[in-house]
Each structure stands twice: as structure tokens, then as C-alpha cells.
Design brief:
38% of the residues lie in helices and 19% in strands. By secondary structure, the protein is an alpha/beta fold. Strands 1, 2, 3, 4, 5, 6, 7, 8, 9 and 10 form a 10-stranded mixed beta sheet that branches. Strands 11, 12, 14, 20, 21 and 22 form a 6-stranded parallel beta sheet that branches. Strands 16-15-13-17-19-18 form a 6-stranded mixed beta sheet.
Length: 845
Amino acid sequence: MNRRGFLLSAAATIGSSTVTIASPAIATSSITSLVLTGIDPDLSAESFITVLDEVCSRGIPVTCVVSPYGKDGAAISPKSAISSVLTAYMLQNKIEVAPFIPGLPNQSDYFQGRSLHEVTKLLSIALAGGMLDRPNFKTIASDDTENPWEPTGVRAGGVKTVLVVPTGEREVKSEIWPNGVLRLMGGKWFPLELSKDADLKLSGTQSIFHLDMVHLEGMAAQDVVDKIGHTLDKLNLLEKTGATSLLRISDLHLRDNYRFHRFVAVHLAYPDTSDSDLMAHFEAFKIDLERDGLQVSIGQPPKHSIGEKSLFWLPIGNPREERHSESRHLKLFSVNVDEISGHTKGEVDPGLVLQSGQCVGLAGHETKGLDNAGILWLPSVQVSDLNSLETLQERLENAEDVVVSIQAEALSNPYMSLGLRSQLKKAMRDGFSRLGAIDLLVNEIAPKGAEMAHQRRTVGALAYTGRASPSRAARERKRLFDDAQVAWSYISQNTIQRTGLCPATVSFSPTEGRVHPTVTMWDVGSHINGLIAASQIGFLPKREFERNIAKILRQVRGRKTQNRLLPQGWIRVDRQKWGNRNFDGSDAGRLLSSLENLRRYAGMNDQLESLVNSWDLAKIVIDGEVNSVTDGKLHSVYTSHSAHYSARAFRSWGVNAKSPYEVVSSKLSYDDQMRLLEAASAIGPLGAEPLLLEAMESDMSLESAYLAEVLFAAQVEDFKETGRLIAVSEGPIDRAPWFTYQGLQLDAQKRTWALDTVGLNPEHHTAEFWDEYLVLSSKAAFLWAAYKPHEHSDNLVEFVRRNCKTKQGFASSVFSKSGRVTSTYSDLNTNGVILQAIARRLGEA
């Protein structure tokens, strides 16, 4: 069967159902594809032309894998020889171009979509040369990697086929994914210098021959012909004798076992309501579509001329039955988008609170896919007159996704209305098209991922979370002062005068009361910051403050082990300079940050520099990563939410350290937000500490400020949906496992409050445990109120005031499920941080 007959028979048997999991595809006929690789701006045009002429003169379909960058990293130019060659052959429809995207298999859905958008935009400009419509790429190519990600993110740019360029020969393997993306892997090398009498062996039912142009680079034309001529002749003969069908890679998608389908989204632009005749035609057409069984989206008309940008906000996860009560159709509204940050506002009402969603754009000649502002550009055709009706017919016949954007003016012409309905009904009956509102298309092609969901929710919540609470009155200052006295009572009652240290936790239960006699360097840092805050508020006279600080500094001089002098992992509060031999890199970051805070507040520069310089901090920073020392062995603490906070603290004392958060630019673009969310997601649950501690002790970094917005928005969202107050952080609890790290799980699609524990026991990583042990952190409530003046923050503090005051400071937390307060259990970190937060608020009021 030749390729024309094969494609016709395949199209005739296309079904409209999709698979629900990625599954291997089983070929129904022997097929063979030819792929040219190694094509980039540095390739010799002469040998490339010779190859293409030899291939195309025999009528062999070919897919050209093109890298948009040269060996020096420079982008392909429209004026380059290779661009001219590719454009000339594409204009004659002799070749298919598949953009090569290196690193694609290791990217998330979002960055697959972004990489595709940027590469295809670059190649489109280079190949169109400013004279043609931008090329429509149906296939992309990627490198070969073990354990690749699902390739589903490329669907955002209209691509349904991913060709993996193999590193070695192997049997062709194909996978089809739920959103219709086909991935092809494997193949064999194109046989060079095959003799005239030798056989060309195919690989069962499916063969892909890869010809690397590097092997022919710089050869004379006749030498190239000698290398490839006989193999091309044999490919041609195999098809003519019916042994195989020669197909371009993109044509493989039409085969029945790949369950080909496409979406046609119908969008109606709402007319001017003052035009009664136009409104009548609009309503009549809408009713006709409902009778045809077609649901559509309805939105405000574009503010600009036809063909220019129209942006809409599409809520994600909005059940279709919840659509506007007056119609079964989906109503969208226009939005404006910041082109750097992706922050979105309603065009008519900028203060409108947006649901979690996706910004979509309609523009006929824009590059499809996900742009750098998070806008998903949909392939569309604007229907406004008879000429555009003909354009629509052409678009519907090419079997690709499309948004049919109908202008209200077109509906005043009865011929136009009938023609539109006729074309849409024809598409509904073709067996592979799915028609409906824009959300059907977007839900199919938009990149998925929990991090994207959190980003969208944060953007949607900004209209509310960005509203500062009214300025605090004098009465509030008095209440804050009273709160500070409660927090100060923990330190003042429990400090051991001989050492100057304060125990980490105290249980004052009548039956099980005990004092934990040790502190970590994290606790010491909180103690120092608490003393600074108490001095700022007025609880500590200058001399008493200096005496207390001097005692603490003597206790943290450290211990020398393995030729390293470092602060100890923990020390006893009731003994002089007594502790273990270990060192904790994260806790050291907290201590260094508090010493930097002390230097800013009290001076003591020479004394503090002498202390810090005595420590061998540079010896535990390996390749930029801060390490802990346990039993003499180094263990990186880079993969932790403390690493960013610690890195900034180490740098403040001249020790270079890197942070896993620092993946962003100075402008924090939409791409940067996603990079940061993915980096933070890989670490674990995100809580208020040490995120907000930066703002209490120094300037808030760009990275932490954004993550704080994400966490705050999620807490507000939870309150609006459930009525419960959430303030997650790390801290002690009054029962086993005694200490938890609680936060927002960024890699969960559904909003999830997750817990980590020191021992990482399996029984602590269940939804039941998380639900039972989720607590509201007292210190987190005060941190939010200090960092983000907001009605919700005020509610958190008010809740802690009512429930958590004890005779020895603020109780550490309140269990969310039972409402039980750790009323006989308090800790140094909680009260030290609360003092910090209150001092910050009083200083700003």
C-alpha cells in the first residue's frame, strides 16, 4: 500500500475515543520514515541541498530535525543559507521540519510548553523570513535520556508527535499519552554506501532510518550521491512493491491505533447591547447552537481590531454544571496581563478576585503555546465576513485544533449564520473532531502540574491578599505590648543566670512537667533575637542586655574536632560550654543571622567578627553547599528550605554559599516563578520558617517574598473554603514525635498540608497522620501579622491571643482537628520569634 492509500484508509477508521494511560502502539501496516538529523546553522548548505534533491526527486517523504542554535550558541538567522534552503523546500511541501529541543525529556510540563514556544517562535521567524505565514510545526525532536518525563507539555503548542533522536540503534517503540501526544523512540542508522545488490532490511512493522548530516558534511555532490543513492532507491522500491508505506513522522499520528482526535472550540464575541437587532441575531444563533447540541464560550468583544490580541481568564476546575444560570454556555471575561510577572487583572474590574485559572489568548498569527507571561495562545480563526468563512472551511479541513472566534457582526447575515452552522455540524460528524467551549480545548492542551496550580491560585488571590489591613490604632499597640510581655515571660522565667542560656522547651504539666536541658544553635539564635527585640521594646535595660548577650556568646565558642572549630550541634543550658561534637549547617545559619542582627543593633563588630572568624565555616562549605557534620562525616543541607536562609547568613559573614532558591532573575518573571516553585517543591513542605524570618532580620529576598505570597494565598484559600485558620511552620508538639516540619506541599495538585519529622518514619507520612497532627503555629501567626498586614493575619493573631497565652509564654501550637492547645508546653523558638515579630510591628507602627 502506498502512502496516499495508507493515509486515506487510516483517516477513514479514525475513532473519537482516547486512551486513559500511556500505552504502546501496535502497528497495523509496515511503515517506514526517513529522518535527517544534525541540521543546524553551521551545516554546509551545498551537501544538504544535494541530500534533499536526492530524497525529494524520488518522492520520498522526509522529516528534517533542525536545531535553532549553532555550535557557538547563536540563534539561526533568516538570512542564513540553511534557513533559505529549509524555507524553499517547505514552500514546495517537500519536507517536514521538526524543531530540536535539547533537554526536553528532563523538563516539567510547564517548561516543555515554554521551550516549545520559544524554539518554534525562533524557527518560525527564521524560516518564514517575514514574508510567509509562520510555519506550523507538527513534530518536535528531543534527545535520548534515561527515565524521561512524560512529553505531555508539548501539546500546549499544538504538537502531537515527539521524535526522540536515538543515541544508538534499537527497535522502534511508540507511546501514546492521554492528551494525544505520541512519542517515538529508537530506529536504526541510514545505511551509507549500500551496494546495489544488497537488501535493505526493515524492522518488523515500523522502521525509522536516521541519517546524520554530519557524516556528509563538506562532501562533493557526487560523493554524497554515491553514499546515499542506492539506499534511497531501495526505499522507493519497497514502497512501490507494497512492502512498506513511506511516511513523514507527523503523518504517523493519523493511524487508528493512536486514536487521533482534535478539538474545535467555538467562541462568541458578545455584541454591543445597545444594538437591539444585533442582539436579536446573537441570541437566535446561540439558541440554534444549543439545539445542535453545541456548548460554546461567550466573552467580551476584542477592544482592538480583528486579528489583534484578545485575552480571557478561564477558571480551572470549574464544573460545567456551575456555569452561568441563564445559559449552558461558558462565560469568559477579558483581562489585562503584566507581560513580565503574569499578574492578571480584570479588564473592566481590576479588583475582581479571580478563581484559579489560566489566561488564554486568541490571535490568528501568534505563535501557539505558552508564552513568558503564562498566556496560553490558542490557534484561532476570526469569523466576521464571507472571506473569513472560506478561511474557516480551510482550517476545519486540516484536522488540527482551532478556536472558531465568531464576531457578532457576522451573525446579522443569514447566509453567514447558516454557513457557520453547516460547517460546525459537519465537523461534529467527522468522527475525530470534538466541539465545545474553549475550556474543553484548554483542559486538553494546557500544561499540567501542581506548581502551576499553586501559581495560578496565587495570581487569582492577589486582588484579595494584596489588600493591606487598615493601620493599627493606639489600642492595638497596647495589645501588642501585652503580647510581648507574655512571650518575654518564657525567657525571663527560664533563663539560667550562670550560663545565660534558656532551655529549648518547657513542659509545666502538673504530672509530666520537665525542662529540656539542651539547646541547638537555632534555639540560641532565637534567644539572641528575642533579647534584641526585648531591648527594642523596653523590657531590657542596656547593661542587662549586654550582660546576657556576653554570657551566651561565651557558650557558643564551639568545639574543635577533626581540625575544625565549629559551633556544636547542641549544648547544655545548665553547664558551661558543654555539648556534643556534631555541627548542624542549618542551625548555624540561624545563629549567624542572629549575630548579624546583633551587629546591626548593638555594634560589637570587633567582638562578633573575632568569634565568627574563629570558626572554620569555609571548611564545611563544599562546592557552595553548606554541610552538617554528624559523627565526623559531612552531610549537605542544601536540599532544605533552610538552605536559602542559611546561604544569606553565611554570606553576611564573608563565606560564599549557594541557595536552591536562586533560580530567578531580578524581575521575577512568570518563568522565574515556575522555576522557583519547582525548586521549592523538590525540597518538601513549605512553612513560615525560615521563610518569614528573613523579613524580621534583614530585607526579604525576592525568592522568599514570592514563596510567602504562595503560602499566604493557600492559607487564605483554605480559610475561605473550610473556615479553619492555617498557620504552618516547624516546631515542637507535646506528644510523639515531639517535633514536626509542617507546610504546603507544592507538588500536590490538590491543596495539601503535609508534615515531615526528624526520623522520617513511614507512619508519619500518611494523610491520616497529617490530618491528626496538623497544628496552627503561634509564632507563624505573629510572623504573618508582622510581615503582611492583612485582615487574615489579624485574625490569626487574635486566635492565638484567645487560646495560647500561658503562665510561661505562648503555647507552641493548637491542633487544627481537635482544637486542643499545647497549653502546658512552650518553647524558646516560639517566644523568641514572637518577640521579634512584635518588635518589628511596633517599630513600623
